[in-house]
Structure formats: structure tokens, C-alpha cells
Design goal:
Blueprint (H helix, E strand, L loop, with lengths): L16 H7 L11 H22 L1 E7 L7 E6 L9 E5 L16 H5 L4 E5 L9 H18 L6 E6 L1 H10 L12 E7 L14 H4 L3 H6 L2 H7 L10 E7 L4 H16 L3 E7 L6 H4 L7 H13 L1
Parallel strand pairs: 3-4, 3-5, 5-6, 6-7, 7-8
Antiparallel strand pairs: 1-2, 2-4
Helix pairs in contact: 4-5, 8-9
Length: 304
């Protein structure tokens, strides 16, 4: 009899539904403010950063990468023109049911100041969009960018929370059907979820309406365990990051995904960022001296 996969043996199966709900409610683990204030504060900081970026940086807003009404991206440019530049593509979080590119430009000013083009991608969140559609959309957004900027100096894909799940799904994409292989040079997966099955019994699944089959089909962790994908670029680094004050389940998911990536041949690293939670790990990207901002800059410029 075959041994159970890491997913089937996962410790989350021993948790009560109440405990699972708590583990997958990131605001309940924040210690710097009341849980009910966390999301509003996060959106406010993101909205202010986006307004500042649109007022102070050269940009192309609401660029369509597909035919769907929700398939748009905002592209922010450095002050200096360049023939070739690195592209930093950000996928927002919000449990696939909230969040917007219009309040997610946290990192635009610090990164464009260093010569990086920053792209904030929108996708159809639930209930309009399904997980399969979202994965397809963000994958096509990467293809669109490669075709639009074929001489780019690398595409660096970063996702937060649900966006980290989508970025991890792109990491496993087959590019043959798209007719182009993107110049992917780095992934930064921040406080993500890579096995969706634990969410099935939580309130987070109410708008998603995931079945067990949906969850398994859209879980990067399961895909890596079942049929390991070979890196498009063998030396392409995958940084799996989590905040000190993320929940134990978010820590477990990140470490399990990192370990699986390493086991099947990816150049993966794992880092817990001290002193931050699920939200300010991204809020702090408005600052150039922030630890994660510096990790991003180091990742991009080490490759260059």
C-alpha cells in the first residue's frame, strides 16, 4: 500500500472547524491593532500608495491583457527611459474574493526609483470569477507582458496571500499552448496558501463555493507532489516568505511548499520576516528601507 501523500497526512486534518476558521482568518493573528480594524487599514494604505504612484510616476493604467472586463493591468515606469528593464508583476491578495489593483500599488515608488517597471494585475475575483479562471487570467497576463516587452531583463512575479497562490500556479504553468515562454527570473511568494483543501469548511469558501475537486485541482502543493514541474529557468529562484505573526497554518503551508519545491529541483528558499504580520508585510513595501523591499531589490539586481 502506497504511503499517504504529505497533503493527506497534514496536521490540519486534526483541527476542529472552529480552529481551522481561526487559523485561516489572518486578521485574528495581528497584535498591533484590533482584528476588525486590520483590513480597512490595509486597504487605506494601499489606496494612498496607489494615488501617490499615479500622481508621481509615469504610468499606463487599465491596460487590457485580455478581452474580459476584469482583465486589466496598471504599468508604472521609472523616470528614465530604457530599452530594456526588469518587470515586477504583483498579484494582490483578498482570499480570491476582495482586493483590487486600484489599492495595491504599495511598492511602486521604491521599485520604480531603482529602475524597475512595476505591473499591478487585476483578475476576476469571486463570485464572478472561479479559481480556474483566475489562474488562467494571471497566466495570460504574464504572456501578455512578455509579448509587449520581449526585450525585458526578467519578469519577477510576486503574489501576496491569495495572490501568492496564483503566482505559484503560474510557476507550474505549461507555456506550450500559449506560444511563448516568458522570461521568468524570480518568484516571491508572500504569506500564501498552496493547498486549498483546509479552506473548504471555512467561511472563506462561502463566495468561492469550492468543491473538493476544485480545491485539489487548484492546489500547487498537490500538483508538485503528484507531477513535479521542471523549472522553466533552472536557476530561477523561488522565495517563499511568511510573516512572524502569520498563523501557524500559514507558516506550515509556506514551509511545506518550500520543502516540496526543493525536493523536486527548484532553487527555493524560505524566510520568516520578523516583527510583521499578514498585512504589514506588504504595507511596509511603501518604504525603500523595508526588509521585503530590500529582498526584492536584491533578487532583481543579483540576477542582472
Amino acid at each position: 500500500m502506497a504511503p499517504p501523500s504529505p497533503s493527506s497526512a497534514a496536521p490540519w486534518r486534526n483541527l476542529s472547524s472552529e480552529e481551522l476558521e481561526k487559523q485561516y482568518s489572518p486578521s485574528r493573528w495581528v497584535i498591533r491593532m484590533k482584528p476588525e480594524e486590520v483590513v480597512g487599514n490595509f486597504v487605506q494604505i494601499g489606496s494612498q500608495a496607489t494615488q501617490k504612484a499615479r500622481a508621481t510616476r509615469r504610468s499606463q493604467l487599465h491596460v487590457p491583457y485580455g478581452d474580459g472586463a476584469g482583465e486589466k493591468m496598471d504599468i508604472y515606469f521609472p523616470d528614465e527611459d530604457a530599452q530594456a528593464f526588469p518587470l515586477f508583476l504583483f498579484l494582490h491578495g483578498g482570499y480570491w474574493q476582495s482586493g483590487s489593483k486600484d489599492d495595491s500599488a504599495f511598492m511602486v515608488n521604491p521599485l520604480t526609483a531603482q529602475g524597475i517597471v512595476v505591473v499591478i494585475v487585476a483578475y476576476d475575483i469571486a463570485p464572478k470569477g472561479t479559481l480556474d479562471q483566475m489562474v488562467d487570467q494571471v497566466t495570460r497576463s504574464v504572456v501578455f507582458l512578455q509579448r509587449r516587452y520581449p526585450s525585458n531583463e526578467g519578469i519577477y512575479l510576486c503574489g501576496h496571500s491569495a495572490g501568492a497562490h496564483l503566482a505559484a500556479s503560474v510557476l507550474l504553468a505549461s507555456w506550450t499552448k500559449h506560444g511563448v515562454t516568458p522570461n521568468l527570473q524570480g518568484f516571491l511568494l508572500v504569506s500564501g496558501i498552496y493547498d486549498l483543501e483546509p479552506l473548504l469548511s471555512t467561511s472563506q469558501n462561502d463566495p468561492l463555493r469550492m468543491t473538493l475537486e476544485d480545491a485539489q485541482r487548484n492546489s500547487p502543493q498537490r500538483h508538485l507532489e503528484a507531477a513535479p514541474a521542471r523549472p522553466v529557468v533552472p536557476a530561477c529562484p523561488v522565495l517563499v516568505l511568511v510573516g512572524q505573526h502569520d498563523s501557524p497554518e500559514f507558516h506550515r503551508q509556506s514551509r511545506a511548499f518550500f520543502e516540496t519545491l526543493r525536493r523536486v529541483g527548484w532553487k527555493a528558499s524560505f524566510q520568516q520576516l520578523p516583527g510583521v504580520d499578514h498585512f504589514d508585510i506588504i504595507e511596509n513595501l511603501t518604504r525603500e528601507d523595508d526588509a521585503l523591499t530590500q529582498i526584492i531589490l536584491k533578487t532583481v539586481f543579483q540576477k542582472l
